[in-house]
Amino acid sequence: MSTPRARRTSAPNKVLVTFLLLALSVIGFQAFVGPSVLPIVPADRPHEFANGLGVRLLSIAHTHEDGEHLVTWSVELHNPGDTDLVLDPTTACRHVMPPEDVGTPGSPMEHTENVVVPAGQVTYWSDSCPSPDSGRWWAYTVRFDDPTEEHRYPPLTLLGRAH
Q1: Nearest one of 88, 92, 90 to 146, comparing CA atoms
Q2: Residues 13-22 pLDDT 10s
Q3: pLDDT, tens only, 16-41
Q4: Are 4 and 18 a contacting pair, CB within 8 Å?
Q5: 20 to 30 A from 58, CA-CA: which of 6, 41, 135, 149?
């Protein structure tokens, strides 16, 4: 009788399984607390909306400011169009595993300043939320509203790890 061999899992398979579990946990969490947040975009991938507005996560950093631990998100917004875009952002941060809202009560957070992305240019924008420590997986959901109501942007969730 032969002895069964231990099965080895390759690193790419572990990464794929981890990403799938993270994505499913965000989707499952949202099914219980609110509307769907699709699309879900990994930290190293850009996303383009129907009108061409591009969003790319540049960094997720764990910082310490004024005695408070924060996770800070920096995104690039690219407007390939021929007119300026004015965007009104609403954001929410979540620990992915275990799924848990963070930030002020009543999250998501609305921002008082609009983000202007000039025609044919790139704009950089950052946002922060409270964070207990670095190395955690995060889901950062951003929804841009167009005050002119000419364009519609569904919520976009970016997944990544704060370092």
Answers
A1: 88
A2: 666 666 656 6
A3: 666 656 665 555 444 433 444 457 88
A4: no
A5: 149
More confident residue, 136 or 8: 136
DSSP state for residue 87 in the 8-state scheme:
E
The residue type of 75 is V
Helices (H), the chain: 11-33
Query: How confident is residue 119, by pLDDT bands cut at 50, 70 and 90?
Result: very high
Q: Which residues contact 79 (CB under 8 A, 6 or more apart)?
A: 52, 53, 54, 85, 117, 118, 119, 120, 121, 122, 123
Give me the pLDDT at residue 34, please: 43
Q: How far apart are CA 88 and CA 111, in angstroms?
A: 7
CA atoms within 13 A on the CB side of 127: 23
Task: Determine which helix (DSSP H) or strand (DSSP E) holds 103, and give its type and residue range.
Answer: none
Residues near 24 by Cβ (< 8 Å), separated by ≥ 6? none
Phi, psi of 115 (to 5 degrees): -105, 125
